[in-house]
Structures are given as structure tokens and as C-alpha cells.
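If your schedule permits, I should be very grateful for your opinion on a structural question. Thank you for your consideration; the sequence and its C-alpha cells are set out here:

===
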Amino acid sequence: MDVIIYTDGSARGNPNGPGGYGAVVCYTDKNGILHERQYSQGYIKTTNNRMELMAAIAGLEALIKPCNVTLYSDSQYLVKAFNEGWLNSWIKKGWKGSNNKPVKNRDLWERLLEAVKPHNVTFVWVKGHAGHEYNERCDMLATSAADSDNRIIDEGLDSNE
């Protein structure tokens, strides 16, 4: 099955502002019906990079069967880590970066690597949410989660089901 995941993360008042993420997972079933699931989580004291990673993780962990996935993110950090071999380099060096300092967010990178494993994933950078209504929706999900006083736990919203 082919799946498209749109993601965004938001951390207010970087660094370590209250953060939230948004992910929208879209797929068409065997009957040609479009399905869509939204995930968001908010009110976490964290940085924007962690929110971007959480958005990708939430979208990928929602998939039950192996899929062909195109994941759209406005995070160059996330997309380049996969597309330009940064992750492989970090792992080979014992999770050290180019300056030989420990890689930040190792816990989430490892979780993301596990989430990617069963799938064929292509990471695509979307500059500043340009180009698609779902990127705008993810931006709104992430921002509202970050601004919320409530913790929203991976709440899946199904349409057309």
C-alpha cells in the first residue's frame, strides 16, 4: 500500500518551550476510498527538533502493515539525516556527530529508525509548509498542541471509515 505522511513540529519560545507536533497519514484502500488519520501531542517542554522527530515517529508508528511511504517534513535536519547519510555516519561513530560530540535526540533517532524499518520510506523536504493543504493542517495541529494547556495523546481521527 502507498501512504503519504505530512508532519510538523512546533516548540514555542525555543529552546525548551512548550512543544507539540502534528502528523497526518493519508492512504487509499483497495476500494479506492481515501482515509486520513491525524495525530498530535502537546504541552511538552522540549525543542523544535524533537517535535519534528516525534511527528515523523507518530505517523510511521500508526502504520500496521509494511507500506511504501512518502514522508513530507519542513525539517531539513530530519530529511538530510536520512537522505544524506548522516544517521549511518553517527551510528558508525558510536552516535557521535562531526565534532565528535554525542548526537542530540539519540533516543528519538533510535525510535525513528525502528519505525522506519518495516517500510520503504522516502523523505521529502517541504520548505516552510509550501505546496499542500496537509502541510498547513500539520502546522495548525502542531501549533495548537504547543499552545494547549492540555496533553493530547496520539489521538487518531478517522474520516471515511
Notes: Confidence is low (pLDDT under 50) at residues 153-161. Helices lie at 48-61, 76-83, 86-92, 106-116, 133-147. The longest helix spans residues 133-147. Residues 67 and 104 are 29 Å apart (CA to CA).
